[in-house]
Prior knowledge:
69% helix, mainly alpha, Arc Repressor Mutant, subunit A, Rna Polymerase Sigma Factor, Chain: A, 9 helices, globular
Amino acid sequence: MTSEQNLHQQLEAMRPALLRFALLQLRNDTQAEDAVQDALLAVLEKPGSFAGKSSFRTYVIGILKYKIIDILRSSGKEKQLPCEDDAAESDLIDSLFNANGHTLETARAWAEPDTELEQKDFFRVLEVCLEKLPAKTARVFMMREWLDLDTEEICKELDLSTSNLWVLLYRARLRLRECLDLNWFASNV
């Protein structure tokens, strides 16, 4: 098998995950497909650009990330997402704490985070945990943590107040920690 065939197979295997990532951010099938196609085309046009300083998957996601940012910045004001059930979300968050505000369970010790992050299955579990978040919460988290957009850009793009953004980020981190504790760290102890 030639290296070109191998490259095509690797990209084809990554395509569904890349499309899910793009859809989460763009909320538009056409724009998500365009972003993924542009990223894959960029990799295929310059296959020698991959320096091996990260995993190939990380390299391709990095390219996709910039394609998504370009689309977000050029698309102007976005339509409002449907309002989430804030009361249900608050009840869920409140159930994690006792009356004096302390968490009911302390976080499990996370061995060596650098080693854990390098494990391929971790990202699969993280992706599942992200998919379990409410759509708007997951989107805000991904914009901040994966796309590295600053607070002002996210607030402008989603028409959020700064305090609302920080609440959504707090909720996302809390629920991701809980999901990872249950589905990753508990099984790797």
